[in-house]
Amino acid sequence: MPKRRETLSLSLFLSLPSPSSSRPFLSPPFPLSKGVIWRGDSVIEGVPATLDMLRAAGKRLVFVTNNSTKSRAGYLKKFTDLGLNVQAEEIYSSSYAAAAYLQSIDFPADKKVYIIGEQGIADELDLAGIKHCGGPEDAGKEVALKPGYAMPHDADVGAVVVGFDRHLSYYKIQYATLCISENPGCHFIATNTDARTHLTDAQEW
Prior knowledge:
Elements: E1 7-13, E2 31-39, E3 42-43, H1 47-56, E4 61-65, H2 72-81, E5 91-93, H3 94-104, E6 112-116, H4 119-127, E7 131-134, E8 157-162, H5 170-182, E9 187-190
Parallel strand pairs: 4-5, 6-7, 6-8, 8-9
Antiparallel strand pairs: 1-2, 1-4, 2-3
């Protein structure tokens, strides 16, 4: 089976709020340059030396990805496994951005998030103290298509967050649609808007 090729980009910024800030996305960053760090499980040639050179020059490094399948901790582990010296506060993933956005709008403590996505989103919501459901735990669930059947959904879902999901199903789509259409004020948040992506080294999907 073809293996997915994951890439991650490096950006150099003039200014960027700290990851500890509750509103990291409200002050637009100004990227000076951008490049890819790895493809799949291989660091691109010259990257370690380039990172060392940039740090020695006093540049602030920010590693940005719109792949929500991992949390910041998950990406930190990958950096470490690849032999790259990166700090957790230098990593910005779209899973983190989604959780930070919900914090910034004072997402109600009595509401929860329905996830179409993978563990990275769930992990970042946990770190933000936001309740959630769906995601990996809904893998394999099916809709009972029968006369008179009304699919139940949680009325406490106040947001639906959608990211890459290798177990996307009609059940998840239907559940999310019901939350958005029937729960007053339910937010709909996408971790990225890519129409196509390189999921394997063989083709673009």
